[in-house]
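I hope you will forgive my troubling you with a question about protein structure. The record follows directly beneath this note:
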Amino acid sequence: MSLSAVFFLDVKGKVLISRNYRGDVDMSSVDKFMMLILDTEEEGQVSPIITHGAVTFMYIKYNNLYLVACSKKNANVALVFTMLHKIVEVLTEYFKELEEESIRDNFVLIYELLDELIDFGYPQTTDSKILQEYITQVGQKLEIAPKPPPAITNAVSWRSEGVRYRKNEVFLDVIESVNLLVNSNGNVLRSEIVGAVKMRVFLSGMPELRLGLNDKVLFENTGRGGKSKSVELEDVKFHQCVRLSRFENDRTISFIPPDGEFELMSYRLNTHVKPLIWIESVIERHSHSRVEYMIKAKSQFKRRSTANNVDIIIPVPNDADSPKFKTTVGYAKYLPESSAVVWHIKSFPGGKEYLMRAHFNLPSVEAEEAEGRPPISVKFEIPYFTTSGIQVRYLKIIEKSGYQALPWVRYITQNGDYQVRV
């Protein structure tokens, strides 16, 4: 990767904190960074990579900060951006919120972390759980300075040795978010499923876990392609603990897990998704006096499943007032600060259809359609259900002491960017 330096800048381009790793770049060169950004914006060529002379700047924007890496070498740009996002992730775990104020309050700690995350421009220890074992927010006396945990020099750098639990358990959640865009005619314009396998591991020792999914490639390799229901996963990304060579050879997901909570893998499915909650809307606008809404919501999943805490968010004109609602289930609430009505349904079983009517006065005399019609958005969560049909076939726990452990598996489907145009 060969990073030369990392800078944290505020929105005006003032350096809050910086770390020079290689000494081959003039640290004052970052003073030109904001001017370069403004120049590219004026030209309409906004890019996260800017070259000035012999120095290349690579940056991300987070909250009110610019995180800027610079290099004089032919750096691996993808790795640099991954590292910048990793720095954000680690600092967020330490300070809960990464912003200008938290940087000013934690200079010393951030310098310590930057020294451990990157060494001479190369990634070093990036696992926040391991970092938290020896870089703490508690002051240390020199004579009892903490020793770095052995995990840093181990092959398994994400897990410390000697972890012990009285009750050994593993919790595995398969969480799928549905991104959907439906036009006003009811046609699905865009749909995809973004999934993640999240784990909470409370196991003693150095266990090896093996996870089996109904993976289409695995089923075809083992001659079960047509017999069992399988899922073709795309854009699979794994936590560093997964043995990639094993997965590439025989599609086995084998790993020694970190202790506690982590995301094992993520995936995406570009597939045609039938809208789980179908929305129909009729909006009648009476000139300069009132507007009436009739919203019909229908659950298009199996009857044995139930969506919880469904919020159907209907945008209304900015000048609407005197709301009146009538619902067959749940309740409707007007949020004037958001110019929207939220229809909340606590429990929405599969195969059901509900109705909501709303009436508003429109006091002002404005061009009705000038503001356009923003889409209706839907929020929901369906437990014990996956849209893709992914299944955990087994989760094996192998540890030399031979203890018995309880694996718990849970499936959840929720909304992602779920919008219905009106």
The domain at 169-273+387-420 is CATH 2.60.40.1170 (Immunoglobulin-like). The first strand starts at residue 5 and ends at 10.
